[in-house]
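In the laboratory, one determines a bound structure by crystallizing the protein with its ligand and collecting diffraction data. In a computational setting the workflow is compressed into a single prediction: the sequence and the ligand go in, and a structural description comes out. We illustrate the idea with zinc ion.
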Amino acid sequence: MMTIITQQGRRIEIISQSELCDPLNMGEYVRAYCHIHGSDHQRSLSINKETGWGHCFNATCDATVLVAEWIPTLAQRLIHIHSQAGYPRTLWSYQPRKKRSPLVRQPVLLHLTKSPPKWQQDELAALLTLDGLMRAALVHSQRARAYLDERRIPLEVAQATGVGYLPQAMLSRPELQGRRNILSRWAERIVFPLASPTGKGYIGRSLWRWQPGMDENAHKELLDQQRKPRRWIKTNPAGWFGYDLDQLADSIILVEGAFDRLTLLAAGFQTTEVVALVGTAVQADWLPPQVKAVVLALDGDEGGKDASDRLAERLAQAGIWVRVCPLLQGKWGKDWNECWRRIGPQSVRPIFETYSKLRSA
Ligand SMILES: [Zn+2]
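The predicted complex, in structure-token form:
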């Protein structure tokens, strides 16, 4: 066990799963006797299996814990920040376990990661083999290029981020025999590469029945009707667009959509500075230790402000500096890309300002 104090003054016990005393599976949570205050009467320690965070409900203990093996990157980050802040690392302390709380090791039971169903594994494998072809197709497809143009995204920006296109004709390639069915839902889609700690993935935006000159909102309405192809589809696992663990800058900007990321890159930000969440929740654990600061530039729709605030709080708890730079919803558009199309560079000026302030702080 290691005790650390965050920059916000929060005390966190980073524990190993082997320290859990007689842990019991309770759905989303694991309950264990609290080895921090030494309880053997009831399992007062409750830990969320997915997030690795836990809490002791004993009022005199009130410990906040993080199970290191479950959330290794975050645990490392906290330890790293802690050691940089000048705290002695000798706070490591091992506490004797109570005799009446025999240790039960059940790591597999405690922290299950489900593997995706077979068809999803096949789908992802097929897309991965097409990666190079899809990137080339983006350059050669007039339709895909016209769509990027409509979104005011330069082709070079899309190319630099590994964006591709899957034309219907590609599915007739002989080497895809037997995999056509699984890939058919990806036809006529702009395809964005995703990444997460569990691996690679893709998200695809349908261009079904899109014609050059058609406004993005009109196309959105068309696709949102019943029984039309879904506007966006993802593989399992999915991930973030622009997530390269080793390359990420020390200050990054989080946006919601794939086209919002391309917008910021078109405006002059570096590929290492902007990450699009594309519907995958923010997990502080995903951020590598070099990331010290985050600008949250999420869409400002209903409830978006609350979501941003909650997210900012969670990131701050993980020792990250956060600034919120919400989109002024409704004024020029529903997302950064729409504002960019309407009013150009001045749409993203608030992000530049927030970002440079954060970097000089
Ligand atoms: Zn306790």
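The longest strand covers residues 189-196. Keep in mind that any predicted model is a hypothesis to be tested, not a measurement.
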